[in-house]
Structures are given as structure tokens and as C-alpha cells.
């Protein structure tokens, strides 16, 4: 491959990056307002949480994860930031995506295209293997290859994925000849070693159990591979530095490309270089990093829900900036990545696999004794805390047995084809169930009258979006090394197809309507004085309105359809016993989950009883109410900083494990996460132009499961120790609400009294200022003492009067 083969990508990226700090507010706001219609139609609810933490002024670097919804993530993030925090943000976007409508849209909101090595990777000729994996693991030898023409120093070598496992990738350090090259770090992982050696003595960690038998399997000629050119990102970094130094906002998804995994992928060094490079050039610019959790409920499904959670902003410790400037870039970048990873873990729900996520969500439902729908932020917080508890105690026999029981309960629900919240129907009497069933069938019949017209008219769009989005998912899955099913691109393509076909379809229907009016005035129903242009306008109002009405009616109708099966099971004499037994089993499991949480919770959180999110009905034996669904966390919303905590203001996310810098994480390498551990030990980062901004090294299954939530928790140590993580569990009973109301009233009275005192201080100061103008120099000292010390005496006088 020619040496300048990668030229167009970075050049285009750099030219676009120069305009990054020059967002056109009119274009930006108009585009977001227009696209907000699509967001509101696709999502049933997008709930921003913690947006008050976003700084309203100064440079901000937003790091968002997990990247589970391709271009939709960017649109949702920019929309929430503009509406809730009044900030406009320029996002980094892959260079390969900047074409067509996506390219035009990215220019309207000031996105910066960035070249990625994996996007430029192409299959190379020949095969490769490791000739000496024990003594010289960085030496790669090829069969039928021509590295001198196809490879570049600083480029990358990609191995293929296989059986749902991600392929490995490494950087090229030197080209030794047409059939030999040296990589910067050894290949790791079982799949990579199997592909490069074909040996049978490889353990699950990718280590050779028989080091005496050196070399690959006899007669093995290697595996297919891809080569990517070297991409210089220097000008892109310079443009990012310029934007941040001028007080702008930059947003990045540090995992790289979108994916549909349940855990955070390792973060690439680009996000750390952007922050450290900016502060190295402008130490006093006030840059802060804000973690953003993109939490979706079935991200690829129509009318799903999302919670966009903002964590506390934190500053980069000055010691890391000094290390970055003093040729210790790798260590500074690694430790800042630890901070970012820990911050993201505090605002996301991360589990090692899909089955674990299903168990945690089932445990959360079982732990809610009210049986009522909880607010989305409470749901996300409960999932997060349960996931952390599981990560810490997953080897505990109590948790292992409970997981098996919950998994079996989920299997029974799937067998009966019902949901957990529908099990409660078994507690109703047969007449009540029968009347409810008949009432819902009648209601569904009425709703169908409003759904069918829009369903028929919009059916071509439904069919096209489903087919095209699933085809794109298959294509993306085949081209990716990190995706599992390719669901992360489905929502994007559903929106894009709808955006393209809906106007065409509506225009087609409007033309048919106008033609019928022209022919016979719509069978005489349209008066002759109505012009055709008015028919066109009416058609563009009527047909979208029919679609929207069908959408709303269909939403309610689908909920009713899902509730009919459990009701029918309760009515049927042959199945009522089974669902009744399932209800009894659910009650037993709910008690077991509550017991496990109440036993293990205090071990994790010292303030467990004071920071419950869900009222413990089993321990106190009282009935619950929907009003008991959430607690303001001791006067603070869940996830909000408490007075005196290390998270207020612009503190770093590692307050309790600080080193020399108060409120910053300790510079201890043993506390690293999977993100910084992915950084090669021999990488100097002396040339930041060669450091990719996006992740290119997908994790193996084992590595990605290691620790996506950090190790330290409240009261512990480690990267998560600085985050105030409260207990799993609301206001209990009427007395607690009266107590809370009393506290609120007292606080309001206190605030009113403080305001009145402040007014009295201001009036007193004004009087003293007037007296000061006519007083002598000898009296000015007493005036000053009244101004600055008289407030206390004034308060004391008021206190005496009150007494």
C-alpha cells in the first residue's frame, strides 16, 4: 500500500475540524428541533438525570458510554444538552460515516470527522503466524505476504473474529521484510493464539501451557488478516485543543464504534490525550470532564425508553498534566483513563453478559414490593446498585443459589409467555378476572378502530424499516469485531428509513386524494369552491395526524394485548393452578431477594438504612403504597452530590483515594481498569498524531468481563471509592412522609428567615452608608464594624426580641 494511502482521511478530518469551534447556532438549533420530532416519536420517554451538574460556562469534555445506538446516541445527547443545560457540543464522528444525509447532518451540528484504522483496514494477501510465540512473541511471519508494499509502520494488523469472539489487533512497530514484521506488543487472548499457532496447549487466558514446545503447530501456515494504514491525527487534536481552550464543548464516545454488549468496552487513549493536551497548552482554561451514561431499555425497539445520566464534573489533577508534559505520557494517559472509566461506571449499568443483566432486572422487580411502576431514574439506579452488588458477591454461595432460583423463575415466565408484573393477576378472584378480561377485550376493540387506518396507511414504512434495519444489522455484524447481534444500528436505520420514506408516502397519498377530488369531488363530499392547493395542505395535515393517532392508540392497545394472556390463564381451570403456584413462587423469591439485600447491603454501604430507594416491606411488616416508591436519599436525589462530598463542583471522581492532589485519584498503577491496561507498555505516545481517538482493539470475552464497574465502592478503596454509592434501598409508611414534610417546612421557614435577615442587613448597610457620607474620618472605623460585624449583633438583637 502506498505511504500516502491514508492521506485523504486525515486531511478531510482536519479541514472539517477547523470549523468545529464555529458552530452556527441557527443551523444547530434548527436541526436539533427538527430531529427532536423523530426522537419523540421513536422513544416513549427520554429522561435526563443530573443535567444540573453540567457546567454552564467554560470548556467541557463530555465522555459518553455505552455507545449502544450508533448515530441516535449523538442526536439524543446533543438534544438533551441543548434543552437541559443550554450547551452546544461538537461530537467526534467516524470519517467513514461522513457521507450522504449523515454527512450533511453532522455538518449542521459541528461534528468532527476522525479517521479510524479499523475503517481503513483491508484484507491483505497471504497468511501470518507466530514463528516463536514463547521467546519472541512480537515477531510475525507471513506466507505469501508482501509487507513492504502493503504494511506501514504505525499501521495496524487485524485478526478475524470467530464464533462470537472478537478478533485481536496490534500496531506495527517495524517492517523487517516482505514476509516479516514486528508488532509493538504481543497478541493476547485464546482466539488470537489459536489463529496464530494452531496449538492445542492454549489455556483460556491465551497462555501456552507447554512453553518447551516452541513454534506453531507443525505444518501450520497461519491465518488470514487485515492491514490498516497509519493515520495522522495531529491536526484533529490541534483543532480539539483550540476549541476547548476557547471555552467550547467537545463530546466523544471513548469506546469507539457502537456496539450491543452489556459491558463497557476498553477506552482508547484519545479522550485522555484531548484533556491532557489542552491543559498542557492552557493550564488555567478550567477544563472539566463530565461523564454521561446512555442507559437504554431495549435501545433498538420502537417506543422504548432511555435515561441520560450526567455524573459530577471533575478536573484533571495537575500532577497528571505535569507527567504528560515531562515525557511520562503513557502513565498520565493510563491514570486519566482510570478516572474516566470509574466516572462512567458510576452512571451506567454494566454487566458481564446478557443473562446476568436479565437476572439483575428480575431481582430489581422482585425487590419492589409495591408492585407499582417506578420512575425511570430509580429503575436505573436500582439496576446499577444490584449490578455492583452482584459483581462483588458473585462468588458468594448465597448469591449463586439466588441467581439459579431467579433464572428458573424467568424460564417459567417465558414458558407461560407472561411478564413478571402480570403474575399478580393470580391473586384476583375468578369473577374479577373475567370482568377485567371482557372489559379489556372491549377496550381493545374500540382502540382498533383508531389504530387500523393508520396501520394500513403506514404499513409500507413499518415493513421497510424492519427489513432494511435488520439487513443493515447483519452487514454491520459481519464487518465488526465487537458486536454481538448488530442491534446497535437498528434504531438508526429505522429512523433514517422513516425520515426518507414517510414524506414520499404522505405525498403519494396526498396526490391520490387531490386526484379523487379533481375527478368527482371525492364522491361529492368536497364542495366545489375548495381549491386543489387546499386539498394538498389538508392531506399533509390529515395523513400525519392519522399516523400519530394510530401510534398513540396502538401503544395502549399493545399493552392491553400483552395483558390478555395471563388473564386467560387465570380464567382457564386447567392453567389457573400453575399461575397460582407461580405467584407463590414469586412471593418466596421476593422475600429471598429482600433478605439477601438486607444482609449484604450493610456490608457494602455503611449508611444502608438511611439511603434506601425501595421500602423494605418484609422487614417491617407494613403495607406499601405507590408514594413509597422513592426516597430523596437523605435530602438529596440519588446520584446527586452530598454536602461535603468529593463530587460537588468540579471535583474528580476519586476523592477518597487521592494522592497529592485533594479530590483526585491516587496515582497508583495497581488500581488500573481494563481501559488503561489495554495501553501497550512500550507505547510512549510521544507522537500524539499517531494515537487513535477511537478504540480499535476490541476486548476478548474474558477481558471485557473483568471489571467494568471498578473495584472500590463506598467505604472501600479503588477507583470507585470516591463515588458516593448509596444503599439498594424509600420512605416507609405515613409517619416517614410526615417527618419528611416537616423537615421540608422547617427548611422553607429557615430560608424565609434568612432572606428577611438579609433584607434587614441591606437596609442597615444602606443607612450606615448614608451616615458615613457626613461622618468624620474617626467615625469610619465604627461604620466599617457595623457593616461587617453589625449583622451578627443585629441577628442577636432579633434573637432577643424573638425570645
Automatic annotation (TrEMBL):
- The entry's keywords: Membrane, Transmembrane, Transmembrane helix
Q: Name one Pfam family in it.
A: Acyltransferase
Q: Where are the transmembrane segments?
A: 444-464, 496-518, 530-553
Instruction: Give the Low complexity compositional bias ranges.
Output: 632-666, 697-708, 777-788
- Region of interest (Disordered), ranges: 629-720, 748-803
Sequence ranges assigned to domain Phospholipid/glycerol acyltransferase in this UniProt record: 61-297
Biased segments, Polar residues type? 671-687
Q: What is this protein called?
A: Phospholipid/glycerol acyltransferase domain-containing protein
**What is the protein's species of origin?**
Remersonia thermophila
Amino acid at each position: 500500500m502506498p505511504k500516502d494511502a491514508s492521506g485523504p482521511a486525515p486531511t478531510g478530518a482536519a479541514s472539517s475540524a477547523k470549523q468545529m469551534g464555529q458552530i452556527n447556532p441557527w443551523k444547530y438549533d434548527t436541526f436539533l428541533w427538527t430531529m427532536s420530532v423523530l426522537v419523540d416519536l421513536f422513544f416513549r420517554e427520554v429522561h435526563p438525570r443530573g443535567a444540573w451538574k453540567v457546567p454552564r460556562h467554560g470548556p467541557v469534555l463530555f465522555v459518553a458510554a455505552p455507545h449502544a445506538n450508533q448515530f441516535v446516541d449523538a442526536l439524543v445527547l446533543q438534544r438533551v444538552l441543548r434543552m437541559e443545560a443550554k450547551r452546544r457540543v461538537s461530537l467526534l464522528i467516524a470519517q467513514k460515516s461522513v457521507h450522504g444525509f449523515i454527512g450533511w447532518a453532522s455538518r449542521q451540528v459541528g461534528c468532527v470527522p476522525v479517521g479510524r484504522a479499523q475503517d481503513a483496514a483491508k484484507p491483505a494477501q497471504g497468511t501470518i503466524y507466530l514463528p516463536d510465540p514463547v521467546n519472541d512473541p512480537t515477531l510475525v511471519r507471513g506466507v505469501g505476504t508482501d509487507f513492504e508494499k502493503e504494511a506501514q509502520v504505525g499501521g495496524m494488523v487485524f485478526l478475524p473474529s470467530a464464533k462470537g469472539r472478537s478478533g485481536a489487533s496490534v500496531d506495527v512497530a517495524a517492517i523487517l521484510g516482505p514476509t516479516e514484521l514486528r508488532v509493538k506488543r504481543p497478541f493476547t487472548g485464546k482466539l488470537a493464539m489459536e489463529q496464530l499457532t494452531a496449538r492445542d496447549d492454549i489455556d483460556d487466558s491465551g497462555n501456552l501451557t507447554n512453553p518447551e514446545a516452541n513454534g506453531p503447530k507443525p505444518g501450520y501456515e497461519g491465518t488470514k488478516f487485515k492491514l490498516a494504514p497509519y493515520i495522522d491525527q495531529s491536526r484533529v487534536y490541534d483543532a480539539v485543543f483550540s476549541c476547548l481552550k476557547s471555552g467550547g464543548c467537545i463530546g466523544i464516545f471513548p469506546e469507539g464504534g457502537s456496539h450491543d454488549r452489556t459491558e463497557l468496552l476498553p477506552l482508547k487513549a484519545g479522550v485522555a490525550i484531548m484533556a491532557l493536551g489542552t491543559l498542557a497548552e492552557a493550564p488555567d482554561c478550567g477544563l472539566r470532564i463530565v461523564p454521561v451514561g446512555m442507559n437504554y431499555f431495549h435501545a433498538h425497539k420502537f417506543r422504548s425508553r432511555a435515561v441520560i445520566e450526567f455524573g459530577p464534573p471533575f478536573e484533571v489533577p495537575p500532577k497528571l498534566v505535569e507527567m504528560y508534559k515531562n515525557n511520562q505520557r503513557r502513565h498520565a494517559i493510563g491514570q486519566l483513563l482510570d478516572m474516566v472509566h470509574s466516572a462512567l461506571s458510576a452512571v451506567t449499568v454494566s454487566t458481564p453478559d446478557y443473562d446476568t443483566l436479565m437476572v439483575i432486572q428480575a431481582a430489581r422487580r422482585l425487590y419492589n414490593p409495591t408492585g407499582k411502576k417506578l420512575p425511570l431514574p430509580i429503575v436505573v439506579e436500582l439496576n446499577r446498585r444490584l449490578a455492583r452488588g452482584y459483581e462483588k458477591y458473585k462468588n458468594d454461595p448465597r448469591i449463586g443459589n439466588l441467581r439459579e432460583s431467579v433464572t428458573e423463575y424467568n424460564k417459567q415466565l417465558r414458558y407461560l409467555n407472561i411478564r413478571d408484573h402480570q403474575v399478580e393477576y393470580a391473586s384476583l378472584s375468578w369473577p374479577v378476572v373475567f370482568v377485567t378480561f371482557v372489559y379489556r377485550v372491549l377496550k381493545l376493540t374500540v382502540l382498533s378502530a383508531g389504530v387500523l387506518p393508520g396501520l394500513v396507511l403506514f404499513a409500507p414504512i413499518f415493513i421497510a424499516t424492519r427489513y432494511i434495519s435488520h439487513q443493515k444489522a447483519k452487514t454491520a455484524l459481519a464487518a465488526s469485531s465487537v458486536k454481538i447481534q448488530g442491534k446497535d444500528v437498528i434504531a438508526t436505520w429505522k429512523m433514517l428509513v422513516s425520515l426518507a420514506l414517510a414524506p414520499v408516502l404522505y405525498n403519494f397519498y396526498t396526490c391520490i386524494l387531490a386526484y379523487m377530488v379533481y375527478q368527482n369531488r371525492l364522491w361529492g363530499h368536497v364542495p366545489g369552491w375548495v381549491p386543489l392547493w387546499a386539498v394538498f395542505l389538508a392531506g399533509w395535515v390529515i395523513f400525519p395526524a392519522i399516523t400519530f393517532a394510530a401510534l398513540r392508540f396502538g401503544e395502549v392497545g399493545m399493552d392491553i394485548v400483552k395483558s390478555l394472556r395471563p388473564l386467560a390463564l387465570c380464567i382457564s381451570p386447567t392453567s389457573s393452578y400453575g399461575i397460582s403456584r407461580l405467584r407463590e413462587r414469586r412471593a418466596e423469591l421476593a422475600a429471598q431477594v429482600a433478605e439477601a439485600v438486607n444482609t449484604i447491603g450493610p456490608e457494602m454501604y455503611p449508611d444502608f438504612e438511611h439511603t434506601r430507594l425501595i421500602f423494605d416491606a418484609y422487614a417491617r411488616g407494613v403495607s406499601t403504597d405507590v408514594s413509597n416508591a422513592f426516597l430523596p436519599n437523605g435530602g438529596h436525589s440519588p446520584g446527586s452530590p452530598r454536602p461535603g462530598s468529593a463530587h460537588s463542583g468540579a471535583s474528580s471522581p476519586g476523592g477518597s483515594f487521592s494522592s497529592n492532589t485533594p479530590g483526585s485519584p491516587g496515582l497508583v498503577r495497581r488500581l488500573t481498569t481494563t481501559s488503561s491496561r489495554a495501553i501497550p507498555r512500550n507505547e510512549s505516545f510521544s507522537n500524539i498524531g499517531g494515537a487513535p481517538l477511537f478504540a480499535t482493539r476490541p476486548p476478548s470475552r474474558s477481558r471485557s468481563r473483568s471489571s467494568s464497574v471498578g473495584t472500590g465502592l463506598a467505604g472501600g478503596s479503588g477507583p470507585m471509592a470516591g463515588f458516593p454509592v448509596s444503599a439498594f434501598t424509600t420512605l416507609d409508611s405515613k409517619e416517614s412522609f410526615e417527618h419528611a414534610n416537616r423537615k421540608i417546612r422547617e427548611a422553607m421557614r429557615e430560608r424565609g428567615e434568612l432572606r428577611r435577615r438579609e433584607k434587614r442587613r441591606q437596609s442597615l448597610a444602606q443607612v450606615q452608608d448614608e451616615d458615613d457620607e457626613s461622618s468624620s474620618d474617626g467615625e469610619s472605623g465604627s461604620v466599617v464594624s457595623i457593616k461587617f460585624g453589625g449583622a451578627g449583633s443585629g441577628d442577636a438583637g432579633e434573637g432577643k426580641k424573638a425570645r
